[in-house]
Amino acid sequence: MRPVFVETRNYARFMEGLSALDARGAEECRLIVVDGLPGLGKTTILMRWATTSGGVYLRAKTEWTSYWLLGELLAEARVNAPHGYEARFKACLAALGERAQAAAIADRQFAVVIDEADYVSGKGKLVDTVRDLADLSGVPFILVGMGRIRDNLTRYPQTASRISRYVRFEPAELEDVQAFLAAQCEVPVAPDLAGFVTQATRGFNREIREAIVAIERFGLRNPPAGADGLSLREMAGQHLINDRKSSQPILVPGRPQ
Predict the structure, then answer these.
(1) How many helices (H) and strands (E) does the chain have?
(2) What is the reported pTM?
(3) Which is it for the CA torsion 181, 185, 191, 196, positive or negative?
């Protein structure tokens, strides 16, 4: 499988959310919430964006505290963390200010990504720390989580009012699946098999990757006969993926479903 990044519709939704920061009506609206079910590519997209843009990527932990968060933020910024909450907080503001200034000079958008942010959204002090960092540094924070992050943040009106955009990741549609297959699969895939991959995987990225591995394994041993690529009929009866809910194997049928 070719390690190629695919700009899916979810990627486009995220980039639109970033663009909304430039058009926000209030200067304090510096938060973006990205949510959606597991397996839709949130971590892949956000980690890649942080890496290529020079942003900061952090993964929240179950037992995270504000002090721990500040320490990880300073470690990511390659700054020695001083002792004491106030000293760490001031050091974080200084580090964020320097990174933001460097990004502005390079004409890049700078932000802090906090993945697994459900662990943050349920703790009032952590939420307040993130809000304070965003307000005082002027740096956007992107909170990435699953469905409950929205409900959790409504408990903190001062923070919820600062959210510039909610970006919901959705399952991949046929167009996305075809893009994954074309970019990552080393075996050409016919439209009917691509359609079944979309149906069988329910648009979840993890299952799409598993399907690509199965298609490659079969197709490299049995090259497709047609110019369109490996077809549904050619791969009939082969194991494609395991069903996410039942864990039962999903086999490729002989004709479209």
Answers:
(1) 11, 7
(2) 0.89
(3) negative
Q: Which CATH superfamily is domain 9-168 in?
A: P-loop containing nucleotide triphosphate hydrolases (3.40.50.300)
Residue-wise pLDDT tens for the chain (257 aa)?
A: 899 999 999 999 999 988 877 665 445 568 899 999 999 999 999 999 999 988 999 999 999 999 999 999 999 999 999 999 999 999 999 999 999 999 989 988 899 999 999 998 888 899 999 999 999 998 999 999 986 788 888 888 888 878 888 899 999 999 999 999 999 999 999 999 999 999 999 999 999 999 999 999 999 999 998 889 999 999 999 999 998 888 899 999 976 55
Measured between alpha carbons, how far is 84 from 1 in angstroms, rounded to an integer? Answer: 48
Decide: 112 and 141 in contact? Cβ < 8 Å.
yes
Consecutive H or E run containing 12: helix 9-22
